[in-house]
Amino acid sequence: MSGQLRFLTGYEQLVKNLLKSLPEDDAAAQAVGGSFEYYGVLEHALLRGEGLRDGSTVIDVGCGSGRLATKLARYPKLRYLGLDVVPELLDYARRKAGRLDFRFEKVDAVRLPFDALAADFCVFFSVFTHILPEESYVYLEEAHRVLKPGGKAVFSFLEHASAASKPVFDANLAWVRERHMAGHLNTFLHRADLRLWAGRIGFEVAALHLGESKFIEVDADCAAPPAVAEGLYALGQSVCVLRKRGG
Ligand SMILES: C[S@@+](CC[C@H](N)C(=O)[O-])C[C@H]1O[C@@H](n2cnc3c(N)ncnc32)[C@H](O)[C@@H]1O
């Protein structure tokens, strides 16, 4: 069985268990790591800082329950495709975003169902953290195919260089020490390798931020008080922005 299928089974089961034991809103938030509003605001603000505007075309891979989609729903001319492996999360995200023209589709392969040279952004928030590096690489090749020249692939990742990633590795270690086997897949990547990948695929590295770096500017338009006030924020996972050459 491939790593992807192992992971697919894991995530689907996790969501089913959460839906059985919690009210739907709580289950949908917990399935993507919690703090639905908070991370929705930060992901939106981060993309605005990278040039997202009304009229952008955005592919949100591993969109989960719609933390980002609900924030992007405010832009009437924005084109959006959300992809995920868990149908219940797609269904929730579709309802929560409330936009009939936003597409939400299930993926069962590392492939983007989108035309070449058509997207401005291809984003993966907290997705490369849970799949194998080879799958992330192929997703980046796919992102490169669907992006317009100058378009951006934006993804968050775990790395040993970041103090913010350390608690995740420590928890992985504690699990293995206790049970003598791995638990949930939390993948760590290395920024030197990301630079190599970018060059091979045809991207330039536009930015690399540590998980603890407060580089996300939440302005009055993005803020959602009291959950998130205006100010500078860190995402908690490192962030890589790749620009497709030629724009
Ligand atoms: C931690 S959640 C993040 C969700 C969303 N990006 C966000 O920030 O709210 C990870 C998501 O990736 C999805 N996922 C896992 N493997 C995937 C794959 N191979 N392709 C696409 N999505 C995947 C999971 O179902 C889950 O919804």
TrEMBL record:
Species annotation: Craurococcus roseus
Gene3D superfamilies: Vaccinia Virus protein VP39
Pfam families named in the record: Methyltransf_11
Organism domain of life: Bacteria
Methyltransferase type domain location: 59-155
Protein name in the entry: Methyltransferase type 11 domain-containing protein
